[in-house]
User: Fold Pentatricopeptide repeat-containing protein At5g06540 from Cicer arietinum.
Amino acid sequence: MNSISNPILQKLRLKNPKLVLLSQCSNIQDLKIIHAHMLRTHFFFDTFASSRIIAFCIDKPNFLTYAIKVFSQIYNPNIFIFNALIRGCSTSENPENSFHYYIQSQRIGLLPDNITHPFLVKACSKIESLKMGMQVHGQIIKHGFELDFYVQHALVYMYASLGDLMAAMFIFKRMGRFDVASWTCMIAGYHKFGDVESARELFDKMPDRNLVTWSTMISGYARNNRFDKAVEMFGILQDEGVVANEVVMVGVISSCAHLGALAVGEKAHEYVMRNGLALNVILGTAIVDMYARCGDVEKAIRVFKGLEEKDVLCWTALISGLAMHGYAMKALEYFSEMEKNGIFPRDITFTAVLKACSHGGLVEKGLEIFESMKRDHGVEPRLEHFGCMVDLLGRAGKLEEAEKFIHEMPVKPNAPIWGALLGACRIHRNVEVGERVGKILIQMKPEHSGYYVLLSNIYARTNKWKDVTVMRRLMKEKGVRKPPGYSLIEIDGKVHEFTIGDKTHPEIDKIERMWEVILQKIKVAGYIGNTGEALFDIDEEEKEDALHRHSEKLAIAYGIMKIRGPTPIRIVKNLRVCEECHTATKFISQVFEVELIVRDRNRFHHFRKGACSCMDYW
DNA sequence: GTAGGGTTAG
Assistant:
């Protein structure tokens, strides 16, 4: 580039370089021009000038390596430059590098200032090392910064988030003054450690709150899988007349996505529009994801199309949404459109695309894309991509091929990989491969109950009753339990939860009577009912009997009671739907002429006119 | 002599 005609360099001559650097530089090319100019004019050897380069690079993740290279050229770095590096590392992928720069600064005899330590403490929180945290705390005391307000905040958050609540409280209580951030740090720490109750207690007690406090609470609940609580908090926020910002709404909307609470999610979306919040990529992606996960793919596409800025995660959210619903061709269309838009796919993008292929049964296409990952896009396949491939082959009934694929993988297969093959054995009723895989899985994950159940079922099938007894005894001895299954249904903006054998719902008697009515009607239509031993169940709920209905049956019965007209009944289940319930639901969609949209842990099932969109493979 | 900090997000 001709340097004379470059507008940045023209300004550089006219103005103070530091101002130009701060205001004009927006990308690495510009930065390099300025850097080169500084080297040519020897201006770079001014510590203040070179420090501006570092400071510019440090808060942009892609520029960190550049900053470190620049740093290595500086003869006499001061504490400001070290602070910048420590800060940059503490928020990077490898926070432990900040310790390296701290030690280096000490070695050349620089004294830390009041800015240095908070970032080191932050790095300890991030790498989750209490041991390191205590060492840094020692340094803080040694250099006399333990009474610094910011240092105290960082320490409170660090100790609380790493579970040393005594230490966190000790520092918190001894702080000379408090502001909203002090309380918020403590709350954030509780949430990171997973103690949502203590976080809430403090939240209720604190004198005043700001939007960071609200979003800390809401996303804290969400991070700890208390999505119902997150939504509840949003209600309280509105009652108190607070207006949420984008960050708060990301927490609220992603909670709705997890709950499958479409009506609440729609309201939150309206709230965003009504209050004129900025529909940035993050919030936009959360909304797209919410509609897809709540079963309204069309709306997800509409919102997606209306977004001004779309990055790779945003495209991936849509593709993965389409994949979940089994719209494989549509997912692939968006994938190629994404590439046409110059967005480079990432590892998670390929997960979504490969899932689309496996849910849609596009074996050849999936193999093709898998091959292209590294070759054309430079993305190294990870375990989950191999898992998708096992799924893909398994679905097609190529069980031996899938098994061979696992054995030939360049990385060591983990339990979910074998689990994918096991799922395929369940669908294709392959006892031979199933037994082999089941044994491997039990060895790998002795605490996972599903694998014992599976293997014992396989033995029962092959009349190896001795082995069945062994399996059952092993399960008892190890005390393995299944995760409790639950189903959610949203009625009039309220989410109802059902678990197996749970009698706590206020309308439970009516619901159970409703189920009996449903059962009779679908039996007339040809439904045979519980066929006894459910083979090959991996992570389904406990075996059901007349008193213990699987949770989705209760949810469906409740839906039929409450939902009128053409509105589909939407259910969200935490486990995978079992074969029995799947068949029953198909009958229900036919007999009651109703559309049922069930999201299980694996994908969506759209039941319509006696058939399911998954084509009975899930 | 200058500059920089803590708590929230897909």
About this structure: Chain A is about 65% helix and 5% strand.
